[in-house]
Design goal:
Blueprint: E1 2-6, H1 10-22, E2 27-31, H2 44-48, H3 64-68, E3 70-73, E4 77-81, E5 86-89, E6 94-96, E7 99-102, E8 106-108, E9 122-123, H4 128-137, E10 143-147, H5 151-162, E11 166-171, H6 183-195, E12 199-202, E13 206-212, E14 214-219, E15 224-227, E16 229-232, E17 236-238, E18 256-257, E19 270-272, E20 277-280, E21 286-287, H7 292-306, E22 319-324, E23 327-333, E24 350-356, E25 363-369, E26 372-379, H8 385-393, H9 398-404, E27 425-428
Helix pairs in contact: 1-7
Bound molecules: flavin-adenine dinucleotide (FAD).
Length: 430
């Protein structure tokens, strides 16, 4: 049995490992045109800043492929012939498969600005190739515009600032990262990033780009901003253009349509996992998840399906953590905010409790549904997502969580408890 896996990042490699564990004799081939060894995409920024070497971000040792007898093809897949059961390679030739996993991840969403890609200076930050190109282009003293107010946007603003560029962070929405932060939380992040010297402009939609020596951006009301380089960080799209016209059905946003348990796609013997797969969310909507740990779980589920095991892929309760410069961010569970797709939570009695720390640059938001805590969003302090996830599963009340909050402080022995003040906001709705 020949298993071909396109994409050797977290979803692809985890699938390959599951297959090998179940089938000692299977032929397993990993195809990718990115790095030879899988690496943590989430840690690219630390390589950019010189805090880690690329090798330090590799999450398995370099002997893995040999030990597991994985074959490695460094090439780009440009088509899939489902009837003939083979993938077409960019450098010529084709690779036959018995089972095919598409774990092709995301590509950057391109800036919809005339002329953006007609010359140098416009970058993205998703692949290792993007990283390498930006690494060469970004030089201290240059002026940079980072377009896009999400997680990749803030990371890029940070690494460019660390390298000594003058950074303008342009956020189209009224506040930064509105899929994850509410207005109060975003105000904390924006103030913090500004304090580090980044020019943060919320509500700054970029409407045009002109190339006159430097790059001149026109912002909403007509303001002009001249920079030497631009990084588009307006989100990602499934990396699936090469599947257009094939038997593999794509959803309207380009994600690969999968069965709810990831046990199949529309094409026989073809599976999908990770950022490129359209899956069912807890609110019933279907779209890709674009998270590291869900890509890992999906890869494992798809690998199991490929060896014929019955699969249950159910998205575990959401959690994540990040840093905006040195401001901690921790989230767990369901904390709906302004994103339209998540604006209407399922029916029930929703309440949101929010409090800023009186003396620290920190905040905590707790969302309840039918008097049970369903989600946490925190800035400025480290919290244990493990404890929060347990409380969510135990269906704890807000009063109970307040009483036990100190138990979820990450460095309990070094941190004073987060004070619960009578002045905290409690409002109806999520
Ligand atoms: C800068 C950055 C920061 C991030 N930070 C976080 C974070 O803090 N937390 C978090 O949860 N997630 C984060 N993410 C998202 C996370 O990295 C992704 O969800 C995860 O990498 C998805 O894994 P994957 O295996 O599905 O695909 P990917 O990691 O995208 O890998 C897909 C692989 O397939 C290859 N490929 C694609 N098409 C082809 C083709 N046609 N032929 C051959 N090979 C192909 C690609 O080159 C790539 O190697 C971040 C992403 C970026 C870019």
């Amino acid at each position: 049995m020949h298993h071909v896996i396109v994409g050797n990042s977290i979803a692809g490699v985890e699938a390959a490992l599951v297959i090998r564990r179940r089938d000692e004799t299977a032929r397993i081939t990993l195809v990718s045109d990115e790095s030879d060894h899988p690496f943590a995409r989430t840690a690219m920024m630390y390589v950019f800043c010189g805090q880690l070497r690329q090798e330090d971000t590799e999450f398995y040792d370099r002997g893995l492929y040999a030990r597991m007898r994985f074959e490695r093809v460094r090439d780009r897949v440009v088509g899939v012939d489902c009837a003939a059961h083979r993938v077409v390679l960019e450098r010529g030739g084709a690779l036959p498969y018995d089972r095919l996993l598409l774990a092709v991840g995301s590509a950057p969403r391109r800036l919809a600005l005339d002329g953006a890609y007609d010359g140098p200076g416009v970058h993205h930050y998703v692949s290792l190739q993007d990283h390498a190109a930006l690494d060469v282009a970004a030089k201290a003293g240059m002026r940079a515009a980072v377009v896009g107010g999400g997680l990749i946007g803030v990371e890029v603003a940070e690494v460019l600032h660390a390298r000594g560029l003058v950074v303008h962070w342009l956020v189209r929405d009224a506040w930064t990262w509105p899929v994850a932060l509410d207005r109060d939380e975003a105000a904390i992040v924006e103030a913090h990033v500004r304090q580090h010297g980044v020019d943060v402009r919320a509500g700054a939609e970029v409407s045009a780009l002109a190339r006159r020596g430097a790059l001149t951006l026109t912002l909403g009301a007509g303001d002009q901003l001249e920079v030497d380089l631009i990084v588009g960080a307006i989100g990602v799209v499934p990396n699936t253009r090469f599947l257009l016209g094939s038997e593999v059905a794509l959803s309207h946003d380009g994600g690969i349509e999968t069965a709810a348990d990831l046990s199949s796609t529309s094409a026989p013997d073809v599976y999908a996992a990770g950022d490129c797969a359209t899956v069912t969310w807890s609110d019933g909507s279907r779209r890709p998840e674009t998270l590291w740990y869900t890509a890992r779980d999906q890869g494992r589920a798809a690998g199991a399906a490929m060896v014929g095991d019955s699969v249950i892929y159910r998205r575990s309760t959401w959690y994540n953590s990040a840093k905006f410069f040195d401001l901690e961010y921790t989230t767990a569970g369901y904390v709906p905010v302004a994103e339209p797709a998540r604006r209407d939570p399922t029916p029930g009695h929703w309440q949101t409790w929010f409090q800023r720390h009186p003396n620290e640059n920190a905040s905590l938001r707790i969302v309840t549904k039918d008097d049970r805590v369903v989600g946490f969003n925190a800035l400025g302090r480290r919290w244990s997502t493990e404890v929060w996830l347990r409380w969510i599963h135990e269906r704890r009340s807000l009063a109970w969580v307040h009483e036990h909050l100190a138990e979820s402080t990450f460095d309990e022995e070094f941190m004073a408890p987060f004070p619960i003040l009578p002045s905290a906001m409690l409002h109806e709705g999520a």
